[in-house]
Amino acid sequence: MADILTILTIIGVLLLIGILISIVSAKIKVPSILLLLLVGVFAGNILYKGQPIIDLPPLFLTGIGILALIMIVFDSCAKLNIKEMEKYSVPALKLAMTFLVLNAIFLSIATFFIYGTTVQFAILFAVLMSGTAPDVVLSMLSTTKNKVVEILEMEAIINTPLTVLLPFMILEFGEIVNVKFLFTKTVEQITPFLTQIIVGIGAGMLIGIVLFEVMKNKYSEKLSPLAIITAALVTYVLAENLSGNGVVAVTTLGFFFGTLQVKRKISLLGFESVFSNSLRILVFILLGTIIQIPLTFDFFIKSLSIFLIFLVIRFITIMITFGEYELKERIFMTLSVSKGIAVAVVTFFLITYNLEGMREILNLALMFILYSILVSSITAWFSKHLIKENIKPEKI
Q: What does the pLDDT look like over 182-229, one tens digit per residue?
């Protein structure tokens, strides 16, 4: 077991590596999270005196996972201001919902039969993979934003809260589903499940109201940003201690804060994002370190097969939603399905559940993250052949 000095040393080294990787990725135009994951996978296979070179206590990893989860949930929900979702909100919402439903049906079936997991884990995986983060690779584009890019970015804003919330709701709904007793088990779980949701919403609203009253007319450069982080953390802890759903509580707080008129809100969210970036580096490297991908031919064949089915589902979704677009644009939208911090954080946090069969489905999730970033990166490199470049308007 690592002592406190060792833990601090590892954290410092990982953050330093993350900063260097961010600098290098910007120069070579490769997504930083891809390099962070690969560094983590490489470090996870390095042994020192028979032990992994990065060996952190499970309690510490759980704490990092919870903090990262809280920050990414609040950050994504706080930025989802419904009043500001105008031009591309409707098509993006249609795209996000259609993709989620088709994944929940067809990708879960493919995962169940090809990968051989349980029904519950297959659905959980399919829902988790509905999350997208085009910002991971679209920053590589030299073109100015056009309608396709705007829709993809809006889709990510909409599906991020769902990507984080739904997997935990699936787990909270019951233990591994026994198909024979599905109806009975469902009825038994309805009351406690709804109780967790209601308590979570109540906790989020309560802290949100208190936060609004404190901050609506006052802004402190030193204390206000800290108050935001503290409020998110207290919301999660309060809901969990009341037997509610902490993720639902933080989601509610984020939506509540996003609709409020608070002084210097942009500055507050900017500070919170800086804190999230530190957790982001740790999560991606540690995710690659903890999850050991099976280096077998059978695993790669199965994972690639499921990923190809995933792309087919994505293409069908684009065809249904944007049939009027050019084929090249639809291909670009199909292949721009990179996974980001939301999917990574949920995957990282699910490791702490220690459920039988969970590790196997998380191996598949990590491969999907790698596959999606690689495909999206290649797509971004050839973007000028797939989407039209908007011309910046001349200044008058």
A: 555 555 556 766 787 888 889 888 888 887 777 766 666 666 777 788
Assigned domain for 205 exists: yes
Residue 269 in domain: yes
Mean pLDDT of all residues in 165-185: 62
Q: How large a percentage of the chain has pLDDT more than 70?
A: 80
The Cα 84–Cα 364 span in angstroms is 36
Distance of alpha carbon 59 from alpha carbon 296, whole angstroms? 31
Structure token digits, residue 194 = 């709804």
CATH number at residue 136: 1.20.1530.20
| Structure-token pair, residue 66 | 């919870």
Domain for residue 69, yes or no? yes
**Domains identified in the chain, total number:** 1
The answer for 296, left when phi > 0, alpha when psi is -120 to 50, beta otherwise, is beta
Residue scoring higher pLDDT (367 or 59): 367
Provide CB contacts within 8 A for 32, sequence distance 6+.
18, 21, 22, 25, 26
What range does the domain containing 223 cover?
64-385
Distance CA 358, CA 182 (A): 20
Strand partners, 48: 51
pLDDT digits 0-9 by tens, 15-28:
898 889 888 887 88
Secondary structure (H, E, C), 130-164:
CCCCCHHHHCCCCCCCCHHHHHHHHHHHHHHHHHH
Global confidence as pTM: 0.80
Does 45 fall in a domain? no
Calpha distance 299→170 (Å, rounded): 25
